Amino acid sequence: MWSFPLLPDRASTVATQVDMLYFFLVAVSLFFSLVIIVGLVYSAVRYRKDSKASREGAVHEHLGLELAWSIIPLGIAMGIFVWSSVLYLGMHVAPSGAMEIYVVGKQWMWKIQHPQGNREINELHVPVGKPVKLIMTSQDVIHSFYIPAFRIKQDVLPGRYSTQWFQATTPGVYHLFCAEYCGTSHSGMIGKVIVLDQPEYEAWLAGGSSTAMSSSGAELFKQFGCQTCHKSGSSQRGPSLDGLFGKQVALINGEKVVADQEYLRESILNPAAKITQGYLPFMPTYRNQLSHEQINQLVEYVKGLGGQTSASEHP
Q: CATH says 213-313 is which class?
């Protein structure tokens, strides 16, 4: 039998919740639209020119009615606000232990790398039933990572990390789009998300021949002489990186920040932005010396030196 689906598949844990909120908004809009339209049509017909309908006793003020049309919409609006806020927070704060995957958007493709080292372009392989956190940045302009079947969409910005997470519920292949106009070939910036059962996903990972991101980061760490300043010892000129990830760092201005992925990335590209208390701003910038993929690998290496993994839960 021929059918025309009005909505994409629901293939994530939040898809149904997003649809329910959407249907409620549509229902409320239709209800009040019908009330207003029916009232307008009725009044226009009943009290048209030359109509014999009585116009005596017209009410110009009615406190109960005015309170009703103010309080009821306010209550509905506040209910929508609370409902959508709870859903939004749930969609943007990844659960503890979520699997992390790095995404770099560029005109006009998605470049993806798994911590194990597997690389993909315009494809994303994930296991079913496990939360996945995407750590994303852009190489050039603003992009937007959009998977309709998962009901998730997040802007991918140059100069910083943005994150989103999902948990796929059904194996299959789903559309991936860029939902932000990003240039002449924006319409071609498409891909697919391939959701596999756990054994199939592990087999796919094992089939890759790439070096783990943390291992590649360790090589970069040595190549650029980072150990000269950050290795504990008499020659140490910068803060030790052992166990740093996820901990609070005291800055020379008295503030404290969490050493998460964004902090590490900024420290590599703009080391003078946040100077650690007790140290001088000796570190040079590595902007234009490292690719986005190499920065991600260095971040993974520092993460592997220990620390509080709960920091990865920050949106």
A: mainly alpha
